[in-house]
């Protein structure tokens, strides 16, 4: 059960926290789907004496992007060819993806879905007469040959309010609760003192007690999700915390791995999903299950019109695909707003009433039609109640009846992630198999170097949002990728049995660094009459506001319809450098503020890599997600390539480079 919200200051921070040191073989950082996959799988392969520790910032039952639940699993291969899955991901992400990672995931993802069902997740099935069994009625399981209810080629419907609880329970049972620590925020990964480019541990602090935890390990997996609140959200005031992706995702995966030298890839990519306005409710079920369409303020279904088809020709070959890439669908919507034809509506009324009209045309009487309607109404509301309760509350609060009136949808502020319709993340090794390209050069150019999903830092693995250049994993794929890491980390420990990690800093030095905001607060709080206004420090809230203002106005946020330029990007980088200087003087009076301070450190680092990558890539690879006014086109001739960047922990310098994108699966005639 989740703990109740605590008033500000109820958990005051102290100057000398208790230091707790841990030694383990395998360290799993995170508690979302990827971490749960690793925790479940690793015990199958680990010898009895292998020490494994999972550390989560939250509580696993409601941790990660699936915390609030889902109404569908978006990646289930089933009867489809894995090659076609690769083609779908490649097309949606505008051609630049790691096909080896995507194909490899396609081989494993269905097993995770079958496990979810066996653990108790209700999955909708098709009855023999072709009707839908919505998870509450008996049906053959997927493993027994049951046919899932598809809403698209890759998606299947579930009753998923408790999805994450079910997956977390299985992970905890497999790993053992004695090997799991919750409410511990890991904020830094640590390199080995003696062995070059090798992970050796991590450090973090409790969000419930004044304790700093220092870990030594032989191998680690970092899977802490993507990045949210790095751009100013559309919601303001009390609603600022309302976002589409989970607000606790602070870019920690990317920042902590980059800081120890792991190469990043495609950090210019972002995701600005079109969602129901203000509530950020999901649109997938409405598009796929209810077959709804979007209309502009004039009532025109613009996405199907001749003007849209002409516009898509500007982004060939991707604009010619059978399924328009997500960013280009956003681009068409942004154009409607810019041309003054907003608002844009999800035509829920048209979609729902078309089902009723079809029923009447099929000879159903009014009593039967009414029964069909009640079922449709229930499914429409349950879609939100399963995964976005706030949207259901917004509909109710605004007297919206979806069968009578459409609801506004709008592109959100940008997010950074690698598991949804986005592909930023960390450059990792693919499987060590012959079909994976064998490329000469440093690891930042290679496609494989021994251990599947290992970063360019020895012993450091990642999964889910952490693995770059391979989106469309979603919840099931993130879990499967965690399972891959679990097995590989056991292999790594076996191959490096003699390695004894040693840290460069003492536990006391690490604790002083982690609690520096608290030390600063306690030293200077008495200098003014109000703790939030002080010439000697900044508070986390103010730093967050400055970050959002800089990125929104100069980095292509909602304020400019996602438009930026080389000039604006360099101004943004200057502002972020200054912000990092000031962030070094953040102060925290309680444990919640200490958590916010470290989230700010991570967000600033993360979004700086994002801006740096967009500036390096001289094109607009993802129209609708971002635009460069000075390079407004998709330039396949020069830029159909990865942009990779590496931070050198010794010199404190960044290097950006272009890396070859190799097709493995046969390309379509148009791509």
Q: Short summary of the structure?
A:
GO terms for molecular function: adenylyl-sulfate reductase activity; electron transfer activity; flavin adenine dinucleotide binding; succinate dehydrogenase activity. This protein is of the alpha/beta class and 671 residues long. Helices cover 35% and strands 14% of the residues.
Topology overview:
Blueprint lengths: L17 E6 L2 E4 L3 H13 L6 E4 L14 E4 L8 H11 L6 H21 L5 E2 L5 E2 L22 E5 L2 H13 L4 E2 L2 E8 L7 E8 L4 E6 L2 E4 L29 H8 L4 E2 L8 E3 L7 H5 L5 E2 L10 H7 L13 H13 L5 E3 L1 H14 L4 H22 L1 H9 L9 E5 L13 E2 L33 E3 L11 H22 L11 H8 L1 H9 L15 H15 L8 E2 L1 H18 L7 H26 L10 E2 L7 H4 L1 E8 L4 E8 L11
Parallel strand pairs: 1-11, 2-3, 2-12, 3-8, 12-19, 20-21
Antiparallel strand pairs: 4-7, 5-6, 9-10, 10-11, 13-18, 13-22, 14-17, 15-16, 16-17, 22-23
Protein name: Dissimilatory adenylylsulfate reductase alpha subunit
Cofactor: FAD
Pfam family, one: FAD_binding_2
Descriptive notes:
The strands form seven sheets. A five-stranded parallel sheet has the order 8-3-2-12-19, sandwiched between helices. Strands 1-11-10-9 form a four-stranded mixed sheet. A four-stranded antiparallel sheet has the order 18-13-22-23. Among the domains are: 291-411, Flavocytochrome C3, Chain A, domain 1, CATH 3.90.700; 509-634, Fumarate reductase/succinate dehydrogenase flavoprotein-like, C-terminal domain (Methane Monooxygenase Hydroxylase, Chain G, domain 1). The chain starts with 17 loop residues before the first strand and ends in an 11-residue tail after the last strand. It is built from 18 helices and 23 strands. 35% of the residues lie in helices and 14% in strands. The model is unreliable at 1-5 (pLDDT under 50). Helix 3 packs across helix 12, helix 5 (252-259) crosses helix 17 and helix 15 (540-554) runs antiparallel to helix 16. The protein is of the alpha/beta class and 671 residues long.
